Predict the structure.
Amino acid sequence: MAFTVSASMLASIKAQDGSITTSEARQHWIIMGVSLLALTGLLGVQTLVLTHRVAGPARKIAEALRRLIRGEYSEFVTLRRSDYLQDLGSALNSLTRTLHDRDHAIGDAVRLVEEAIAHAPPEMTPLQTMDRLKNALALLKAARAPEPPPSSPALPAVPAPAPANP
């Protein structure tokens, strides 16, 4: 992109005494062009840093969600202090811990039920079997999501889709 200096441009940048020359005007335009390029470069670097602080954490959070979908609870999201989306990363780590704990509690309850069924000695009374099953049920209830407090608004019910008429 080339800059051309017209007579009207020269007139607009002349000093009060009218002593500006064409070479001085050219120097002013060169300085302005270099300044504009430097400003554009600085803005580009700032944009790159900003997108890095947002896009990087977003990518890490997306990867962590994919791991959760696969049932992998061993890794947490680690973000740098200067990254954005810190609250979302912390909430996702909390969700990962909660799902991990619930998965283990459900697994423990399933093992108790399996043991109650498979290893019940013939002399075990139905009441003893019921006690084992009650213990397993208590573990399942403990693993269930807590009820929301009465002060928090409930989510609206989502209507079921209407059946398609062929």
Remarks:
- The two ends are 62 Å apart (CA to CA).
- The chain has a mean pLDDT of 76.
- The chain is about 65% helix and 0% strand.
- The longest helix spans residues 22-69.
